[in-house]
Amino acid sequence: MPDRLAAGAERIVAESGGSVEVAIVLGSGLSDAVSQKARFTRLPYAELGMPVAPLAGHAGEALVGTWRGKRALVFAGRVHLYQGFGAQDVTYSVALAAEAGAKLLVVTNAAGALDPSYRPGDLMLISDHINLTGSNPLLGSGLENPFVDMTNAYAPRLREIAKASGAAQLREGVYAGLLGPTYETPAESRFLRTIGADAVGMSTVLETILARAHGMEVLGLSLITNSAGALDTTHAEVTAVARAASARVADIIDAVLR
């Protein structure tokens, strides 16, 4: 794995003309969100030694280029625990970004609303998370100090920049990360709301943990696509809502980088 990481990072650095400054992970339906913001070179995940699994709304390629004067690495899509991957596979993009020099991670996702005031299409800055996946990317990592402080996992500084940017009206709340792939039952949704979650999804928390272990600042953004526990929620509906709002997600990232 170290050799694979080094080779992938070397390819990325060569394509970007230097060490990466910011890495961005795009969630379900958001893979085309940044294509109009900058000129990128597209690198298939397989060429970077990254895990790949077909999933609607996830392109499976890395975009390398300069965005608002920052050397940026954009991961268009991710793999998930529910697809049979381990925590190290799920967070491989973050490990690769860190190896390529990234100091800042913007992580996005499509999420179901638990706060009854949220509506599909709303954008939520993640202020904190609850890891209910049953896993952790630092298990067996061999780090000298795996006891990473997660008090300010989602950097207050970056959240303030996002809110001050004026790019979009933003909510702010707690994201619960579950294993999936099933959507939440009404009882599970009530439980998650009771323990303090405002939105729920099947990604992000493990990526944030590994990013913090590497000393990266993290900005998290959830696109609310549905109400958790609602009847007959489908992945197609989730990705459709995400695609419709993807331009606003790109605008926020653009404003933060500016």
Total helical elements: 7
**Can you identify the CATH superfamily?**
Nucleoside phosphorylase domain
* Global mean pLDDT: 90
CATH architecture name: 3-Layer(aba) Sandwich
Enter the CATH topology name.
Answer: Rossmann fold
Explain what you see.
It is a single chain. The protein is an alpha/beta fold and 258 residues long. The chain has one domain: Nucleoside phosphorylase domain (Rossmann fold), CATH 3.40.50. It has seven helices and nine strands. It has helices at residues 2-16, 87-90, 92-99, 156-165, 186-194, 205-213, 235-257, and strands spanning 22-26, 40-44, 61-67, 70-76, 104-113, 123-132, 171-178, 199-201, 217-227. It has a five-stranded mixed beta barrel. Helix 4 (156-165) links the parallel strand 6 (123-132) and strand 7 (171-178). Helix 3 packs parallel to helix 6 (205-213) and helix 4 (156-165) packs across helix 7. The radius of gyration is 17 Å and the shape is globular. It starts with a helix and ends with a helix.
